[in-house]
Amino acid sequence: MKKLLVGISLALSMVMASGCGEDVSAQLAAWNALKDGSMERIAGFRGQLETLTETFGGLPSFEGFEGLAARRTALEGKITALRELISGAEGTLTSQGEAMMAALAKKKIADANTAMSSAEGAIDGAMSSITESIADITSDSEQMTSLGALVTSITEVQGRAAGEHLATTAGVHDFLDIDFQSNSAEFDMASENTGPALERLVALASACDESRFSIHGHASKEGNAERNQTLSEQRAQAIRAYLLTHDVEEEQITGTVGHGSADSAVAEPEPESAEATAMDAGLLEAIRNVNRRVSINIETACPAA
Question: SS3 for 247-292, per residue?
Fold first, then answer.
Protein backbone atom coordinates (compact mmCIF):
# COMPACT_ATOMS: atom_id res chain seq x y z
CA MET A 1 0.00 0.00 0.00
CA LYS A 2 2.75 2.45 0.94
CA LYS A 3 4.59 2.00 -2.38
CA LEU A 4 1.36 2.51 -4.33
CA LEU A 5 0.51 5.69 -2.44
CA VAL A 6 4.04 7.01 -2.98
CA GLY A 7 3.58 6.35 -6.68
CA ILE A 8 0.30 8.25 -6.65
CA SER A 9 1.99 11.18 -4.89
CA LEU A 10 4.74 11.27 -7.51
CA ALA A 11 2.17 11.20 -10.27
CA LEU A 12 0.29 14.05 -8.64
CA SER A 13 3.48 16.06 -8.37
CA MET A 14 4.07 15.63 -12.11
CA VAL A 15 0.53 16.73 -12.86
CA MET A 16 0.97 19.81 -10.70
CA ALA A 17 4.17 20.68 -12.52
CA SER A 18 2.25 21.38 -15.71
CA GLY A 19 1.04 24.95 -15.94
CA CYS A 20 -2.42 24.42 -17.41
CA GLY A 21 -5.70 24.75 -15.46
CA GLU A 22 -6.64 26.07 -12.04
CA ASP A 23 -4.36 26.08 -9.02
CA VAL A 24 -5.28 22.99 -6.97
CA SER A 25 -2.14 22.98 -4.84
CA ALA A 26 -4.19 23.55 -1.68
CA GLN A 27 -6.25 20.44 -2.43
CA LEU A 28 -3.06 18.45 -3.10
CA ALA A 29 -1.62 19.54 0.25
CA ALA A 30 -4.85 18.62 2.01
CA TRP A 31 -4.80 15.17 0.41
CA ASN A 32 -1.19 14.57 1.36
CA ALA A 33 -1.96 15.51 4.97
CA LEU A 34 -4.99 13.18 5.00
CA LYS A 35 -2.99 10.37 3.41
CA ASP A 36 -0.02 10.67 5.78
CA GLY A 37 -2.24 10.90 8.86
CA SER A 38 -4.28 7.92 7.72
CA MET A 39 -1.20 5.80 7.08
CA GLU A 40 0.07 6.63 10.56
CA ARG A 41 -3.27 5.67 12.12
CA ILE A 42 -3.39 2.39 10.20
CA ALA A 43 0.12 1.55 11.41
CA GLY A 44 -1.11 2.19 14.97
CA PHE A 45 -4.12 -0.02 14.38
CA ARG A 46 -1.81 -2.80 13.19
CA GLY A 47 0.13 -2.51 16.45
CA GLN A 48 -3.06 -2.70 18.50
CA LEU A 49 -4.21 -5.71 16.49
CA GLU A 50 -0.95 -7.48 17.28
CA THR A 51 -1.35 -6.77 21.00
CA LEU A 52 -4.96 -7.99 21.02
CA THR A 53 -3.94 -11.13 19.14
CA GLU A 54 -1.22 -11.86 21.70
CA THR A 55 -3.69 -11.33 24.56
CA PHE A 56 -6.13 -13.73 22.92
CA GLY A 57 -3.39 -16.31 22.53
CA GLY A 58 -2.79 -16.21 26.28
CA LEU A 59 -6.39 -17.14 27.14
CA PRO A 60 -7.14 -20.67 28.32
CA SER A 61 -9.30 -22.89 26.13
CA PHE A 62 -12.10 -22.78 28.76
CA GLU A 63 -12.59 -26.52 28.30
CA GLY A 64 -15.54 -27.63 30.38
CA PHE A 65 -17.06 -24.14 30.41
CA GLU A 66 -19.36 -24.11 27.38
CA GLY A 67 -20.49 -20.51 27.73
CA LEU A 68 -16.96 -19.16 28.15
CA ALA A 69 -15.64 -21.30 25.29
CA ALA A 70 -18.33 -19.79 23.06
CA ARG A 71 -17.32 -16.28 24.13
CA ARG A 72 -13.70 -17.12 23.33
CA THR A 73 -14.70 -18.27 19.85
CA ALA A 74 -16.72 -15.10 19.33
CA LEU A 75 -13.75 -12.99 20.40
CA GLU A 76 -11.54 -14.80 17.91
CA GLY A 77 -14.09 -13.95 15.20
CA LYS A 78 -14.02 -10.28 16.19
CA ILE A 79 -10.23 -10.21 15.91
CA THR A 80 -10.43 -11.74 12.44
CA ALA A 81 -13.02 -9.14 11.45
CA LEU A 82 -10.76 -6.36 12.78
CA ARG A 83 -7.90 -7.62 10.64
CA GLU A 84 -10.21 -7.44 7.62
CA LEU A 85 -11.35 -3.94 8.56
CA ILE A 86 -7.75 -2.72 8.68
CA SER A 87 -7.00 -4.30 5.30
CA GLY A 88 -10.18 -2.70 4.00
CA ALA A 89 -9.06 0.72 5.27
CA GLU A 90 -5.78 0.32 3.39
CA GLY A 91 -7.75 -0.50 0.26
CA THR A 92 -10.00 2.52 0.80
CA LEU A 93 -6.99 4.80 1.18
CA THR A 94 -5.50 3.47 -2.04
CA SER A 95 -8.70 3.76 -4.06
CA GLN A 96 -9.37 7.26 -2.75
CA GLY A 97 -5.80 8.21 -3.69
CA GLU A 98 -6.41 7.05 -7.23
CA ALA A 99 -9.69 8.99 -7.36
CA MET A 100 -7.94 12.08 -6.00
CA MET A 101 -5.22 11.81 -8.64
CA ALA A 102 -7.84 11.65 -11.38
CA ALA A 103 -9.63 14.71 -9.98
CA LEU A 104 -6.45 16.76 -9.52
CA ALA A 105 -5.33 15.86 -13.02
CA LYS A 106 -8.26 17.88 -14.34
CA LYS A 107 -6.85 20.89 -12.45
CA LYS A 108 -10.34 22.10 -11.56
CA ILE A 109 -10.86 23.26 -7.98
CA ALA A 110 -14.49 22.09 -7.87
CA ASP A 111 -13.58 18.57 -8.97
CA ALA A 112 -10.67 18.43 -6.53
CA ASN A 113 -12.87 19.60 -3.65
CA THR A 114 -15.53 17.01 -4.48
CA ALA A 115 -12.91 14.23 -4.57
CA MET A 116 -11.40 15.45 -1.31
CA SER A 117 -14.77 15.49 0.42
CA SER A 118 -15.47 11.95 -0.79
CA ALA A 119 -12.04 10.77 0.38
CA GLU A 120 -12.51 12.30 3.84
CA GLY A 121 -15.91 10.64 4.26
CA ALA A 122 -14.76 7.22 3.10
CA ILE A 123 -11.55 7.23 5.13
CA ASP A 124 -13.18 8.63 8.27
CA GLY A 125 -15.86 5.94 8.04
CA ALA A 126 -13.26 3.19 7.75
CA MET A 127 -11.25 4.58 10.66
CA SER A 128 -14.34 4.92 12.87
CA SER A 129 -15.29 1.29 12.24
CA ILE A 130 -11.80 0.16 13.24
CA THR A 131 -11.77 2.33 16.37
CA GLU A 132 -15.16 0.94 17.48
CA SER A 133 -14.01 -2.62 16.80
CA ILE A 134 -10.81 -2.17 18.83
CA ALA A 135 -12.75 -0.70 21.76
CA ASP A 136 -15.19 -3.62 21.69
CA ILE A 137 -12.44 -6.24 21.45
CA THR A 138 -10.39 -4.56 24.18
CA SER A 139 -13.36 -4.63 26.54
CA ASP A 140 -14.05 -8.28 25.75
CA SER A 141 -10.36 -9.17 26.10
CA GLU A 142 -10.14 -7.58 29.53
CA GLN A 143 -13.20 -9.50 30.71
CA MET A 144 -11.98 -12.79 29.24
CA THR A 145 -8.51 -12.30 30.74
CA SER A 146 -10.07 -11.83 34.17
CA LEU A 147 -12.28 -14.89 33.70
CA GLY A 148 -9.31 -16.84 32.38
CA ALA A 149 -7.40 -16.08 35.57
CA LEU A 150 -10.28 -17.51 37.60
CA VAL A 151 -10.36 -20.67 35.48
CA THR A 152 -6.60 -21.04 35.88
CA SER A 153 -6.94 -20.68 39.67
CA ILE A 154 -9.70 -23.30 39.76
CA THR A 155 -7.60 -25.68 37.66
CA GLU A 156 -4.59 -25.21 39.93
CA VAL A 157 -6.62 -25.93 43.09
CA GLN A 158 -8.19 -28.98 41.45
CA GLY A 159 -4.78 -30.20 40.32
CA ARG A 160 -3.26 -29.91 43.78
CA ALA A 161 -6.24 -31.63 45.38
CA ALA A 162 -6.24 -34.48 42.86
CA GLY A 163 -2.46 -34.95 43.04
CA GLU A 164 -0.49 -37.14 45.39
CA HIS A 165 -0.66 -36.09 49.05
CA LEU A 166 2.59 -36.92 50.82
CA ALA A 167 2.66 -37.21 54.60
CA THR A 168 6.27 -36.01 54.47
CA THR A 169 5.08 -32.65 53.10
CA ALA A 170 4.00 -30.10 55.68
CA GLY A 171 1.33 -27.56 54.86
CA VAL A 172 -2.24 -27.52 53.58
CA HIS A 173 -3.68 -30.49 51.69
CA ASP A 174 -7.08 -29.82 50.13
CA PHE A 175 -9.71 -32.50 49.49
CA LEU A 176 -12.46 -31.30 47.13
CA ASP A 177 -14.29 -34.54 46.50
CA ILE A 178 -15.45 -35.61 49.94
CA ASP A 179 -19.17 -35.12 49.41
CA PHE A 180 -21.63 -34.49 52.21
CA GLN A 181 -25.38 -34.79 52.18
CA SER A 182 -27.11 -31.49 51.47
CA ASN A 183 -27.08 -29.08 54.42
CA SER A 184 -25.59 -31.84 56.59
CA ALA A 185 -22.36 -33.11 58.12
CA GLU A 186 -23.25 -36.68 57.10
CA PHE A 187 -21.04 -38.14 54.36
CA ASP A 188 -22.74 -38.78 51.05
CA MET A 189 -21.49 -42.33 50.61
CA ALA A 190 -23.72 -42.74 47.56
CA SER A 191 -21.39 -40.36 45.73
CA GLU A 192 -18.71 -42.13 43.73
CA ASN A 193 -16.20 -39.54 44.92
CA THR A 194 -16.57 -39.81 48.68
CA GLY A 195 -15.24 -43.29 49.40
CA PRO A 196 -12.01 -43.01 47.36
CA ALA A 197 -11.41 -39.49 48.73
CA LEU A 198 -11.77 -40.66 52.31
CA GLU A 199 -9.35 -43.51 51.59
CA ARG A 200 -6.77 -41.02 50.34
CA LEU A 201 -7.38 -38.86 53.39
CA VAL A 202 -6.87 -41.82 55.75
CA ALA A 203 -3.69 -42.81 53.92
CA LEU A 204 -2.31 -39.31 54.43
CA ALA A 205 -3.35 -38.99 58.09
CA SER A 206 -2.26 -42.47 59.17
CA ALA A 207 1.08 -42.59 57.37
CA CYS A 208 3.02 -42.32 60.65
CA ASP A 209 2.37 -41.77 64.33
CA GLU A 210 4.69 -38.75 64.45
CA SER A 211 2.56 -36.56 62.22
CA ARG A 212 0.49 -33.76 63.71
CA PHE A 213 -2.24 -31.96 61.82
CA SER A 214 -5.39 -29.89 62.13
CA ILE A 215 -8.61 -30.39 60.18
CA HIS A 216 -10.35 -27.49 58.45
CA GLY A 217 -13.84 -27.22 56.99
CA HIS A 218 -14.68 -24.64 54.31
CA ALA A 219 -17.89 -23.47 52.67
CA SER A 220 -18.82 -21.40 49.66
CA LYS A 221 -20.56 -18.06 50.14
CA GLU A 222 -23.83 -19.49 48.90
CA GLY A 223 -26.53 -19.66 51.57
CA ASN A 224 -26.74 -18.33 55.11
CA ALA A 225 -23.36 -17.23 56.49
CA GLU A 226 -24.05 -18.40 60.05
CA ARG A 227 -25.28 -21.78 58.85
CA ASN A 228 -22.21 -22.14 56.61
CA GLN A 229 -19.96 -21.41 59.57
CA THR A 230 -21.69 -24.02 61.73
CA LEU A 231 -21.75 -26.58 58.92
CA SER A 232 -18.04 -26.13 58.16
CA GLU A 233 -17.26 -26.75 61.86
CA GLN A 234 -19.48 -29.84 61.95
CA ARG A 235 -17.92 -31.25 58.78
CA ALA A 236 -14.39 -30.77 60.14
CA GLN A 237 -15.53 -32.65 63.27
CA ALA A 238 -17.04 -35.40 61.09
CA ILE A 239 -13.68 -35.85 59.39
CA ARG A 240 -12.01 -36.08 62.81
CA ALA A 241 -14.46 -38.74 63.96
CA TYR A 242 -13.93 -40.74 60.79
CA LEU A 243 -10.15 -40.65 61.08
CA LEU A 244 -10.25 -41.79 64.70
CA THR A 245 -11.99 -44.96 63.55
CA HIS A 246 -9.43 -45.53 60.81
CA ASP A 247 -6.00 -45.98 62.40
CA VAL A 248 -5.40 -42.34 63.36
CA GLU A 249 -4.45 -41.57 66.96
CA GLU A 250 -6.26 -38.81 68.81
CA GLU A 251 -3.02 -37.04 69.75
CA GLN A 252 -2.17 -36.63 66.08
CA ILE A 253 -5.13 -34.29 65.59
CA THR A 254 -4.31 -30.88 67.02
CA GLY A 255 -7.72 -29.38 66.39
CA THR A 256 -10.69 -28.84 64.09
CA VAL A 257 -11.57 -25.46 62.62
CA GLY A 258 -14.59 -24.32 60.64
CA HIS A 259 -13.90 -21.32 58.45
CA GLY A 260 -17.33 -20.88 56.88
CA SER A 261 -16.72 -18.95 53.66
CA ALA A 262 -13.94 -16.79 55.11
CA ASP A 263 -11.01 -18.64 53.52
CA SER A 264 -11.89 -19.13 49.85
CA ALA A 265 -9.53 -21.10 47.64
CA VAL A 266 -10.67 -18.98 44.67
CA ALA A 267 -12.18 -15.49 44.82
CA GLU A 268 -15.95 -15.84 44.89
CA PRO A 269 -18.51 -13.07 44.32
CA GLU A 270 -21.13 -12.39 46.94
CA PRO A 271 -24.40 -14.25 46.34
CA GLU A 272 -26.94 -12.31 44.28
CA SER A 273 -24.41 -9.52 43.65
CA ALA A 274 -24.19 -7.92 40.21
CA GLU A 275 -20.92 -9.77 39.66
CA ALA A 276 -22.47 -13.13 40.56
CA THR A 277 -25.52 -12.49 38.40
CA ALA A 278 -23.39 -11.53 35.39
CA MET A 279 -20.92 -14.42 35.80
CA ASP A 280 -21.14 -17.52 33.65
CA ALA A 281 -23.23 -20.03 35.63
CA GLY A 282 -20.80 -22.88 35.03
CA LEU A 283 -17.84 -20.81 36.20
CA LEU A 284 -19.67 -19.63 39.32
CA GLU A 285 -20.55 -23.20 40.29
CA ALA A 286 -16.97 -24.33 39.66
CA ILE A 287 -15.70 -21.61 42.00
CA ARG A 288 -18.19 -22.65 44.66
CA ASN A 289 -17.23 -26.30 44.26
CA VAL A 290 -13.54 -25.69 44.99
CA ASN A 291 -14.41 -23.45 47.91
CA ARG A 292 -16.53 -26.19 49.49
CA ARG A 293 -13.70 -28.37 50.74
CA VAL A 294 -11.99 -30.08 53.63
CA SER A 295 -8.32 -29.39 54.33
CA ILE A 296 -5.66 -31.11 56.40
CA ASN A 297 -2.93 -28.76 57.59
CA ILE A 298 0.10 -30.90 58.43
CA GLU A 299 2.05 -29.07 61.12
CA THR A 300 4.53 -31.89 61.81
CA ALA A 301 5.22 -34.06 58.80
CA CYS A 302 6.32 -37.67 58.80
CA PRO A 303 10.09 -38.14 58.71
CA ALA A 304 11.51 -38.60 55.25
CA ALA A 305 12.40 -42.20 54.48
Answer: CCCHHHEEEEEECCCCCCCCCCCCCCCHHHHHCCHHHHHHHHHHHC
